[in-house]
Design a protein that fits this description.
This protein is α/β, with parallel strands linked by helices and 407 residues long. The chain has 14 helices and 15 strands. The chain has an 8-stranded mixed beta sheet with strand order 2-9-8-7-6-3-4-5, sandwiched between helices. Helix 5 links the parallel strand 3 and strand 4. The radius of gyration is 21 Å and the shape is globular.
């Protein structure tokens, strides 16, 4: 029998948010165990609902959505994205340089495929959202991870970034607000990244999917608003801000030095055309949703559900012996640090698997986000307060006696 193995291109790809530990969780569920899934930022299972106006607009336009459309997306959706970008200070955005996609995930892959030749390098934060690393690898490139410094609120270490630039470096990825750390970057850090990119002729890719999910007065600054001289690719969408992860609608905006990027944009346009177009019904949500900037704010402001859950989770985490955590200012994740000596942890995947088997709580190990050491994990704070209390009780009970056994 001819054995069919996976492509070797996948050898250096990981997506542990939906990886082997989740597979074990599914097996446990099949055997009757109830699992609290704190592994993925999916608001719907935790009772969050999209605004009625967004759902009604999509439903009202289903008959208009039966055929292919322009491969870049509906003009009214792209016009709305241009308006939103302009309000965020991004100069020079135009409808022709906006691409609508099946969520930001598809566009990340397209952005890398359109640019990279074999061996080209892209600077990616560590920790990162792992699709960025995977997309670089699958596009024939080499991901190079620069350090985000936990002691500086998880901001990028600019000196480490500069030290990792080579003649093969093509671009810098910025995830702001950050997944998995919840960091929101100050202007001086973003300005420093712009200066590095301009000095070395690099593209800036800015993943801003959490730009409206902010706490404690944090201000998000789109890095593309700080430069006209650097080619910027800004990626955003409605999945998180308007609680429609299943609709799959996001966008990618080219701005800044577009003259230098003509060939690159042509390549992305070819890729967009090859997939014909992205999901049409969800595109009708864009112009309505982007008029509703306060949709998520009711949850993140004082008294809001997300803020209450973040505050509760943070207080519980920092009071568990052996854990520490930087308080997230954006998104809906904690990325706590584990005292590996206290718990004898050498393998963080085994740690989260042990937690799952004993307490029925599913989280994701830090190395799944291309972090260098087995000393962190990511936990989602989307469940309501009652469920979160149970989750942290379980974590506290588990760590009260846990010692990882040698392999």
């Amino acid at each position: 029998m001819n054995i069919l193995n996976k492509s070797s291109k996948l050898d250096k790809v990981c997506y542990d948010i939906r990886g082997p530990v989740l597979d074990e969780a599914k097996r446990m569920e099949d055997n009757g165990r109830k699992i609290l899934k704190l592994n993925i930022g999916n608001p719907a299972p935790f009772g969050f609902e999209a605004p009625d106006e967004v759902v009604q607009e999509v439903a009202a336009n289903l008959r208009k959505s039966e055929g292919y459309i322009d491969s870049k997306g509906l003009v009214q959706a792209r016009d709305a994205v241009v308006d939103y970008s302009t309000r965020n200070g991004i100069r020079g955005a135009s409808t022709d340089n906006v691409f609508i996609g099946n969520g930001v995930s598809e566009l990340i892959v397209m952005a890398m495929q359109g640019l990279l030749n074999s061996g080209d390098e892209i600077l990616i934060p560590a920790p990162d959202y792992p699709l960025w690393t995977a997309a670089v690898v699958l596009s024939g490139g080499t991901p190079v991870h620069y350090v985000c410094d936990e002691s500086s609120d998880w901001c990028p270490d600019l000196s480490d970034m500069v030290g990792k630039i080579t003649s093969r470096t093509r671009g810098i990825v910025v995830i702001n607000p950050n997944n998995p750390t919840g960091a929101v970057y100050p202007k001086e850090i973003l300005t420093g990244i712009v200066e590095i990119a301009e000095r070395h002729g690099l593209v800036i890719f800015s993943d801003e999917i959490y730009d409206r999910i902010l706490y404690d007065g944090a201000q998000h600054i789109s890095i593309a608003s700080l430069t006209d001289g650097v080619t910027c690719v800004t990626l955003n969408g409605l999945s998180k801000s308007h609680l429609i992860t299943g609709y799959r609608v996001g966008w990618m905006v080219f701005s800044g030095n577009l003259a230098a990027a003509r060939g690159y944009i042509e390549g992305v346009n070819m890729l967009a055309s090859m997939r014909l177009c992205s999901n049409v019904p969800a595109q009708y949500a864009v112009h309505v949703a982007l008029r509703q900037e306060n949709t998520i704010r009711a949850h993140t402001a004082s008294g809001g559900r997300l803020k209450e859950q973040r505050d509760l989770g943070y207080e519980r985490l920092v009071n568990i012996p052996g854990l520490s955590c930087t308080k997230p200012r954006g998104a809906f994740y904690f990325f706590p640090k584990i005292d590996t000596k206290k718990f004898n942890i050498e393998d963080d995947e085994r740690f989260v698997l042990d937690l799952l088997k004993e307490e029925n709580v599913l989280v994701v190990q830090g190395t799944g986000f291309n972090w260098f050491h087995p000393d962190h994990f990511r936990i989602v704070f989307l469940p309501d307060v009652s469920s979160l209390k149970k989750a942290f009780d379980s974590l506290d009970n588990f760590l009260a006696h846990y010692k990882q056994r040698p392999a």
